[in-house]
C-alpha cells in the first residue's frame, strides 16, 4: 500500500525482527523520544547513506545495471 503522508509518498512494509532486536529498537525509540517507526526510518536512512559511499557497493550496482541492460535489450529484440 502506498500513501501520502505530509506531502511525501510512503509505503507500508512489514518487518520481522528477532525479539531482542525489537526490544532494543523500542528502548532506543523511548530514550530518543521518537516513535519506533521514526527510529527504524532513521536507522535505514543511515544504513543506505553509508552503503552509498562504499566503492564495492557502487561497483556492484554498476554490475547489476549492466546485467539488467543486457537482459532488457535481449527481450526488446
From TrEMBL:
Sequence ranges assigned to domain Ribbon-helix-helix protein CopG in this UniProt record: 13-49
Gene3D superfamilies: Met repressor-like
GO biological process: regulation of DNA-templated transcription
Pfam families found in the cross-reference section: RHH_1 (PF01402)
Protein name per its UniProtKB record: Unannotated protein
